[in-house]
């Protein structure tokens, strides 16, 4: 029998979770309950809150006595992060569902994120229509808006709960029986202005027996790729679009954090890296751009996205950061430089064409890279030219087969 874990605050939302538990069981599925509240559950759970707290090194009675909501959330969420994957490894459940507001969502999603990709996970939340990145991270949690607060059983909440239950019931019940040939997995990074390059490279690699996962370099895309590399899924990396570093250093909205461009080097995964779209930093609508950037060159990509051309000074800082990350490598790392343009709008005649800016980026890389571990290949093409894209793809194949 397939089993669904139900995790939540059974002390304050016992009726709601009781309804969900009965509904799941009426479908012929098992339930496995995990109590994440501070106080006593309204029904006997399979995993108590004391066990969750203990996993984080805290006594639940001591935690309750402190009467500190923030501390309780921190402790119990850490306990969930440690306990949930272990319970899954023990075969206690096949998928997980939870319901809550900001607190309930913060309590359970760390545990969900710790589960392997592909394990069904549904979080019905009052904050599902906002910025879900803090809750989802690089996982495959399905966030479903609760519409009304998770407080009581009414005509709206019961319909939402029912839809969520039916969704996860389908996920755990129906398995993908379509057989897909196992091929070496390659991770590639792409942005709108490097799409032609990655499309050419992807087709080139697929024609030679590789499977290519393309990640949109919008912050979470880069983080997701790094996470999959760390998890051991990826056998080769075609990281031609490193634009997230421009946002990280300058202060744009699509940064991927300080650990971008580390996983392949640390895990000895062959990688071909380039400087795609480092000519730009990303902001929202034009009127949201900070005043300190007045005087930069801007390009309105669409009504909600404004691109800002990186300056000579900024490209020096970006180049130094790439040098730092690439020099972490011990082997099988290649840096490819497209000398005639690093994005679709950084070519002669386009809005961000910048000879001096690109020259500073290239020179900083040339002067800083450890040539003993990182090979630099310079090509007299733009990044979206077929010759550059296919050369990058072939170079990665060569690295993976040596």
UniProtKB/TrEMBL annotation:
Upper classification of the organism: Bacteria, Bacillati, Bacillota, Bacilli, Bacillales
Organism listed in the record: Paenibacillus pini JCM 16418
InterPro entries: Tobamovirus_resist_UPF0261 (IPR051353), UPF0261 (IPR008322), UPF0261_C (IPR056778), UPF0261_N (IPR044122)
Name this polypeptide is given: Uncharacterized protein
Gene3D superfamilies: Uncharacterised protein family UPF0261, NC domain, Uncharacterised protein family UPF0261, NN domain
Location of the UPF0261 domain: 2-175, 183-400
């Amino acid at each position: 029998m397939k089993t669904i874990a139900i995790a939540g605050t059974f002390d304050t939302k016992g009726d709601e979770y009781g309804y969900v538990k009965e509904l799941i069981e009426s479908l012929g599925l098992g339930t496995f309950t995990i109590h994440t509240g501070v106080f006593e559950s309204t029904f006997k759970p399979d995993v108590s809150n004391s066990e969750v707290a203990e996993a984080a090194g805290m006594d639940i009675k001591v935690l309750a006595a402190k009467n500190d909501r923030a501390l309780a959330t921190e402790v119990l969420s850490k306990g969930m992060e440690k306990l949930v994957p272990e319970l899954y490894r023990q075969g206690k459940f096949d998928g997980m569902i939870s319901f809550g507001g900001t607190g309930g969502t913060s309590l359970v999603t760390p545990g969900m994120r710790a589960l392997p990709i592909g394990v069904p996970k549904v979080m019905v939340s009052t904050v599902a229509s906002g910025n879900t990145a803090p809750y989802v991270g690089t996982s495959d949690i399905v966030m479903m808006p609760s519409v009304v607060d998770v407080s009581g059983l009414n005509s709206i909440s019961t319909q939402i709960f029912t839809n969520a239950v039916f969704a996860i019931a389908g996920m755990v019940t129906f398995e993908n029986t379509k057989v897909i040939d196992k091929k070496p997995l390659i991770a590639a990074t792409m942005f709108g202005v490097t799409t032609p390059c990655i499309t050419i490279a992807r087709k080139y690699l697929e024609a030679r027996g590789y499977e290519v996962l393309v990640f949109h370099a919008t912050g979470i895309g880069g983080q997701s790729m790094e996470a999959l590399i760390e998890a051991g899924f990826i056998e080769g990396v075609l990281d031609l679009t490193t634009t997230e570093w421009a946002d990280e250093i300058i202060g744009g909205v699509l940064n991927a954090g300080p650990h971008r461009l580390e996983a392949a080097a640390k895990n000895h995964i062959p990688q071909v890296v380039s400087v795609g779209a480092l000519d730009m930093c990303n902001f929202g609508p034009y009127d949201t751009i900070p005043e300190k950037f007045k005087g930069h060159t801007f390009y309105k990509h669409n009504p909600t996205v404004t691109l800002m051309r990186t300056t000579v000074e900024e490209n020096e800082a970006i180049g130094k950061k790439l040098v730092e990350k690439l020099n972490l490598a011990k082997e099988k790392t290649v840096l490819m430089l497209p000398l005639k343009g690093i994005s679709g709008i950084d070519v002669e005649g386009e809005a961000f064409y910048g000879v001096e800016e690109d020259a500073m980026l290239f020179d900083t890389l040339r002067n800083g890279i450890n040539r003993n571990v990182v090979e630099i290949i310079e090509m007299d093409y733009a990044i979206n030219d077929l010759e550059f894209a296919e050369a990058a793809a072939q170079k990665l194949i060569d690295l993976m087969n040596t």
